[in-house]
Design goal:
mainly alpha
Length: 111
């Protein structure tokens, strides 16, 4: 999913974790799923930001050039205004857009 087009809220939302964990039956497993997805999203965001800022990198930066680079500042501000990875991951979980499985549960159901 593209994190730039996410409908996640920009600020913290209180969630009912018991209701949220109905799919897994375990609050801690639900939190772990959301946390792992948030780490994936954060990695994607960091990679994209570094790739965009790499265009502005030069070997001999002057102090004047750094302070005058408005495009770089605008890119950084754009990424700061995006929802946080945990909020995006939680929204994806609520919208059932995260695929997850527990190999231990699958193995126990086979036995």
């Amino acid at each position: 999913m593209d994190y730039k087009k996410s409908n996640a809220p920009l600020n913290t939302v209180t969630r009912d974790m018991i209701k949220l964990s109905e799919d897994t039956g375990n609050v801690y497993e639900t939190v772990c799923i959301i946390a792992k997805r948030a780490n994936q999203i954060a990695g994607e965001m960091k990679h994209d930001l570094e790739k965009k800022l790499q265009e502005f990198a030069s070997l001999n930066d002057n102090l004047e050039e750094i302070s005058e680079n408005r495009e770089q500042i605008e890119i950084s501000r754009y990424y700061e205004k995006l929802p946080k990875p945990t909020l995006i991951a939680a929204q994806e979980y609520v919208d059932h857009k995260i695929f997850f499985r527990n190999p231990l549960k699958e193995r126990n159901s086979i036995d």
